[in-house]
Amino acid sequence: MELVQVKHTEITKPEYYNNRELSWLAFNERVLQEAEDAQNPLLERLKFLAIFSSNLDEFFMVRVAGLQDQVKAGFNKPENKSGLTPKEQLARISERARALVSRQTAIYKELMMKLLPKENVHLRKMADMNEEQTNFINEYFEETIFPVLTPVAVDAYRPFPTLISKTLNMIVLLEQENAESEFREKVAVVQVPSVLERFIQVPAKNDEICVVLLEDIISANINKLFYGYSVKSVQSFRLTRNADLTIHEEGARDLLVEIEKELRKRKWGAVSRIEVRTGEMDDSVLQFLLKELEDWEAEVYSVDCPLDLTFLFSFVKIVGEGREHLEYESFIPQPPQDLESDENIFEKALVQDIFFNHPYESFAPVVDFVNEAANDPTVLAIKQTLYRVSGNSPVIHALKHAAENGKQVTVLVELKARFDEENNVHWAKELEQSGCLVIYGMHNLKTHSKITLVVRRRQSKIERFVHLGTGNYNDATAKIYTDMGIITTKKKFGIDATNFFNFLSGYTEKPNFHHIVVSPNDIRSEFVKLIDEEIKHHLKHGKGYFRAKMNSLTDKDLIMKMYEASIAGVKVELIIRGICCLRPGIKGISENITVTSIVGRFLEHSRIYWFYHNGENKLFLSSADMMTRNMIKRVEILFPIFDTEIKKRIMKSMKTQLRDNVKARIQDVNGDYRYNDKNAGDKCINSQEIFLKEAYRVLIDEE
């Protein structure tokens, strides 16, 4: 059979693609579904509400703010997949986001007002306090809250204050009784202090927990800030500002200084969203607020519950003490199957590749890998890329210790990792002060790859140990993100790793690598080649398929290539947690493609690419999603898996996830997601729970 020729115009129609931003909102809706799901423990449902809020904040700070900038600049060109203009995207985002926020409010009320009281946990208003609680709150206000508050008058001499993004504020209308009528009404702003806990626990009987929100306490005592004035109204609001950094790398003598400068600006970007409490804010006050903020393009959201539900993260920690039944059953990540507890990781790696499947298998051996290298007198050098690390990172401490021990330590710290820039600037300085050679990546590219190279000399022989992974060197997120990685001593991987770091740190053209494939550009080209080969194999032998798991799929070139494969009859099975611009099930275009999204206890983060190739089963792991930014704007690594047993484990995991009928949602031909419903009598398959049991070596009945 001949290769099917597909006309470019046949697969580029806007109706064949999902809009990126609306697809992201569909993902956040799946997060919200976890908060709605009564099968999840109560406090876990509250965490999902907080995650939904945090996600939405970032969405407005970056994606919505970017579209608003385009509208302000008069840019009206449709985006290249779904064909929507910036204004059209903003309109649809607004409609969808408001519906989701309304659902979030309903869930919040059910959980906080109906279900938590049954567990002796109460969120109360000031009017509900008894005498003992009122006295406690009054004393707490005088001793702790009042000294921190700063009322800011707004008049001809004192302009409206510039308020930091994501802070909670109150606008206060005042009246001065003895003033002339036209000067009687005054306005002031009071910021709810973010340095204080958002909720205050008050005395309660027995094992009851009773809390009051900080803003309610301030509101009840607001008159104490304005002696000589009567308070007409107190109305809370919250701003979300444009937080996308504009980093001018061209001509910047020091990228670290440039980023520090831009970070200071982030707090003061243009307002992209204003949140107000439903029923609190008069329209005249809102119009005054918009006028003072000088941003009429900002979206105004009226919310019928407390603003900024990210406070639920800390709330759950307090409530969870002694109420373990309201959270997921605790889980301790287990030792990797490839590594016995008493085995030396370096000696084992000399014998075979070592596979890691986090969080089911512990991240500790990866930290130990760097720690042992730091202390091993035969180790000459450690080289590592860092994109996001934890606040008190043991990996950072190990690298510093290695440099202090005289090792040659090279660390590429990506300063442009969004919302981790400040953290990474801090670590870069610490590493430099410890004697590490710190580099900041490549001009106009983010280094998103996850790779570590340890060079050891024993008996006059050089040994190279390479760790490659799909996730960050972050011991905290490794407990909740699903990621995979390997440690290998295969010679060509060691040569590739050496050349890769030299490519990043020096002046050299991109090397010809033996095994790894490196973006920008090369990974996309490799995917195109592999899909083309899969089509040829299928047309010659049949049974062609391509399976891939990733966070997001946005790259149009790769989507079109998958449409070509589908048209040729190749089966394409995708597991995509978040954004997916591909639309499956379109007759004659994508009817051989399925898209599954799994949202559950752990955040699906691993990137796996599996090409059948007439039974050869070419399998790759990667730091890269099939997103345009990963293909052309980042330094990423795609690496093959050669070990037969590791291949089997990864392929088995993908098959399990494709059978998931508990946490899996399936995208339909319209771009909407529905649960992968079970038929009557079907066994429940929760892939994450299965992997947990497998980590504990519990036998799984595979039907």
Automatic annotation (TrEMBL):
Q: What is the superkingdom listed in this entry's lineage?
A: Bacteria
One GO molecular-function annotation for this sequence?
polyphosphate kinase activity
Q: What CDD domains does the record point to? A: PLDc_PaPPK1_C1_like, PLDc_PaPPK1_C2_like
Q: Which residues form the Polyphosphate kinase N-terminal domain?
A: 17-123
Q: Where is the active site?
A: 448
List the keywords (alphabetical): ATP-binding, Kinase, Magnesium, Metal-binding, Nucleotide-binding, Phosphoprotein, Transferase
Keyword tRNA processing in annotation: no
What residue ranges are annotated as transmembrane? none
Where is ATP bound in this sequence?
55, 481, 577, 605
Assigned protein family: Belongs to the polyphosphate kinase 1 (PPK1) family.
Name of the featured protein: Polyphosphate kinase
Q: Which organism is it from?
A: Viridibacillus soli
Q: What is the lineage of its organism?
A: Bacteria, Bacillati, Bacillota, Bacilli, Bacillales
Which gene is this protein's source? ppk
